[in-house]
Amino acid sequence: MSLDPHFRAMLDAAAAIEMPPLATLPPEMIRMGYVAQRAGLDAGAPKDLAVRDLQVDGGAGPLKARLYEPKDAPATTGGLVYFHGGGFVIGDLETHDDFMRRLCAASGCRVLAVDYRLAPEHPFPAAHDDALAATKWAFDHAAEIGFDPARIAVGGCSAGGNLAACMALELRDDPKRKLAFQLLLYPATAMEQDTQSRRDLATGYVLTAEVMAWFGQHFAAAGHANARRAEPAHVDDLTGLPPALVVTAGFDPLKDEGKAYAHRMAAARVKAEHIEYPSFVHDFYIMASVSPPVVQAIEDTAEKLKAALA
Questions:
Q1: Domain extent for 142
Q2: CA distance 46 to 203
Q3: Average pLDDT over residues 153-167
Q4: Under 8 Å CB-to-CB from 104, ≥6 apart: which residues?
Q5: Active-site pick, 42, 252, 256, 283
Q6: Structural domain tally of the chain?
Q7: What's the pLDDT score for residue 19?
Q8: To 10 degrees, what angle do helices 293-308 and 97-107 make?
Q9: How far apart are CA 255 and CA 158, in angstroms?
Q10: pLDDT for 99
């Protein structure tokens, strides 16, 4: 297994920059840096989509969201409610806009990206409350946003993958809102886990142990009375969940838990598929500008989504 050379060059360049300890940096500074890093990176993302900002329900009031509609889309299509990554602390509609455009265009599905509240200003369970309210809103307003209510999926990357998996569990017994699919992209399935990949890939590959600890400190789920709500890895019964695609990356500390969750769903008779990109790193879906092979990975994932919501 070898690391994609484009990602190796990116990591080498990042390692050459001296940075203060992460624990000394406020979340606002990290967020600004993340947005600046992402700005203008993916100039090849489709621009010929219908894209509009709107508001959806959140756990404590309205949230910003963004609806992506494919070019020449029919009045109704399958729909994906999507939650961005960023450890529940960073990320927004802009940092994942390019990926949302590519996924929408390649799948032919409408995509609703949700700007949920972030920690530490809004610690656990704010993000999960927002994700649940927003997903319910998508069902209840399906006609307004062109979603077929029988073909609605949840999806997300990293922390967003956690939110998507948790929403599938929380809506499992809701007779009025039956999810059709889960798109779980390198999901975190528990706040802390002792996996081989978390040990072997703790440093040097985008998502480090230091970064995860920083996220966890701000998210403040550890020790919370209802922390298991954010930890699908610890749910005993996974029967009755919608079909799922779980994608992992070979140089990502989260890869073992993603693969294990897919296998546990399959063992519970859920139609769950696991795909790993062995030469990629965490967060690769938003790095098409860094490594050209990511474009094909996005298109392949979009085909899976398209087939699931056909």
A1: 5-308
A2: 34
A3: 98
A4: 46, 49, 68, 69, 70, 110, 111
A5: 252
A6: 1
A7: 82
A8: 50
A9: 10
A10: 96
Rounded to an integer, what distance in angstroms lies between the CA atom of residue 279 and that of residue 83? Answer: 24
- Bridge partners of residue 200, in order along the sequence: none
CATH number at residue 249: 3.40.50.1820
Report whether 57 contacts 134 (CB < 8 A).
yes
Q: How far apart are CA 228 and CA 133, in angstroms?
A: 19
Which pLDDT does position 260 carry in this prediction? 98
The whole-angstrom separation of Cα 101 and Cα 149 is 22
The mean-pLDDT minimum among 7-16, 40-49, 80-89, 216-225 falls in: 40-49
The CA distances from residue 57 to 67, 137, 205, 258, in Å, are: 14, 6, 36, 29
How does pLDDT run across 258-285, given as a tens digit for each residue?
A: 999 999 999 999 999 999 999 999 999 9
Per the residue annotation, which of 84, 122, 218, 282 is the catalytic one?
282
Contact present, 101 and 144 (Cβ < 8 Å): no
Catalytic residue among 57, 92, 97, 158: 158
158 is catalytic: yes
Pairing type for strands 272-281 and 77-83 reads unpaired
State which amino acid sits at residue 218. Answer: H
Contact in structure between 41 and 94 (CB atoms under 8 Å) = no
Alpha carbon distance 167, 295 (integer Å): 28
Residue 187's CB: how many other CB atoms inside 10 A?
31
